[in-house]
UniProtKB/TrEMBL annotation:
GO terms for biological process: proteasome-mediated ubiquitin-dependent protein catabolic process; protein K63-linked ubiquitination. This is E3 ubiquitin-protein ligase. Its EC number is 2.3.2.26. The keyword Transferase applies. Pathway: Protein modification; protein ubiquitination. InterPro entries: HECTD1/TRIP12-like.
Length: 89
């Protein structure tokens, strides 16, 4: 392919039906783990998983599952993690 060609649509990897379930159940767990541990290896691993989940999730799904009235403060937990990381930079 020439470098000028860009794929317009890429098929999402994994099971799109399970993505909201994983996000809803696991993102708060990873955020709580990051906030509650002092072990650098655990913090690094949980932050890496959070980063991957947020990076690959569709924006609409993130809003749907972590909106202001959803998932017991999932959005607030994400903000706390980001603030914690930025404070340590």
């Amino acid at each position: 392919k020439p470098d000028t060609e860009v794929e317009e649509f890429t098929e999402p990897k994994g099971d799109p039906e399970m993505a909201p379930v994983y996000l809803r159940r696991l993102l708060p767990v990873f955020c709580a783990t990051f906030q509650s541990t002092m072990l650098p290896s655990v913090r690094k691993a949980s932050l890496s998983l959070i980063r991957k989940m947020v990076h690959y999730i569709q924006p609409e799904l993130l809003i749907e599952t972590c909106g202001a009235d959803k998932t017991a403060g999932c959005g607030a937990m994400l903000v706390e993690v980001i603030a914690n990381v930025l404070d340590n930079e």
